[in-house]
């Protein structure tokens, strides 16, 4: 039987180094992609986002006395890595629907707005409004500085275990109208 040659150690080290640098390159590319797709410019680059963007520009999340601005990603993308990656994969469907024409005009967008908003609200309910709580936490609120109604409602919401989206559905965008059920004509 012929004797097999052992692999050269220098080839194994070179392969290991190449895999290491390819891994670093992949991580850098994913990081760049996530950062780029989290920018306000990217999020508002589709023309059907003109209405949601103009609504957002009228809120305290866009312009306020303190100068702190919450962008699309602050409210729609989790900070933790795995939830962020899941959100990015799911959000790819919005780009897909823009490209295939499902929501590529303001009229088509508005026709599907209730459905899209309902999905976001359900996600926020499941996560206990995780993205809101990055900036707004009951324990950090100075209820004495809030108006009487807000003070009362926030205290009650905390006692009941409610989440932000239970009361604040129209904060950064106008709350869409729920479509009327179809009437059957017999």
TrEMBL record:
<keyword id="KW-0479">Metal-binding</keyword>
<keyword id="KW-1003">Cell membrane</keyword>
<dbReference type="InterPro" id="IPR036280">
    <property type="entry name" value="Multihaem_cyt_sf"/>
</dbReference>
<keyword id="KW-0249">Electron transport</keyword>
<keyword id="KW-0349">Heme</keyword>
<comment type="similarity">
    <text>Belongs to the NapC/NirT/NrfH family.</text>
</comment>
<keyword id="KW-1133">Transmembrane helix</keyword>
<dbReference type="Pfam" id="PF03264">
    <property type="entry name" value="Cytochrom_NNT"/>
</dbReference>
<protein>
    <recommendedName>
        <fullName>Cytochrome c-type protein</fullName>
    </recommendedName>
</protein>
<keyword id="KW-0408">Iron</keyword>
<keyword id="KW-0812">Transmembrane</keyword>
<feature type="domain" description="NapC/NirT cytochrome c N-terminal">
    <location>
        <begin position="11"/>
        <end position="176"/>
    </location>
</feature>
<keyword id="KW-0813">Transport</keyword>
<keyword id="KW-0472">Membrane</keyword>
<dbReference type="InterPro" id="IPR024717">
    <property type="entry name" value="NapC/NirT/NrfH"/>
</dbReference>
<dbReference type="InterPro" id="IPR038266">
    <property type="entry name" value="NapC/NirT_cytc_sf"/>
</dbReference>
<dbReference type="InterPro" id="IPR005126">
    <property type="entry name" value="NapC/NirT_cyt_c_N"/>
</dbReference>
<dbReference type="InterPro" id="IPR051174">
    <property type="entry name" value="Cytochrome_c-type_ET"/>
</dbReference>
């Amino acid at each position: 039987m012929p004797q097999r040659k052992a692999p050269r150690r220098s080839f194994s080290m070179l392969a290991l180094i190449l895999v290491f640098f390819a891994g670093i390159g992949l991580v850098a590319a994913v990081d760049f992609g996530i950062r780029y797709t989290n920018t306000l410019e990217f999020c508002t680059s589709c023309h059907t986002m003109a209405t949601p963007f103009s609504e957002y520009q009228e809120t305290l999340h866009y312009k306020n006395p303190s100068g702190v601005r919450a962008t699309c990603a602050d409210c729609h993308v989790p900070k933790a890595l795995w939830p962020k990656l899941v959100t990015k994969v799911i959000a790819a469907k919005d780009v897909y629907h823009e490209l295939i024409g499902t929501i590529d005009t303001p009229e088509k967008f508005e026709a599907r707005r209730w459905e899209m908003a309902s999905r976001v609200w359900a996600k926020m309910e499941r996560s206990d409004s995780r993205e809101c709580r990055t900036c707004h936490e009951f324990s950090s609120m100075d209820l004495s500085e809030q108006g009487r109604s807000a003070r009362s409602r926030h205290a009650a919401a905390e006692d009941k275990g409610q989440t932000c989206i239970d009361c604040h559905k129209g904060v950064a965008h106008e709350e869409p109208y729920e479509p009327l059920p179809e009437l059957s004509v017999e």
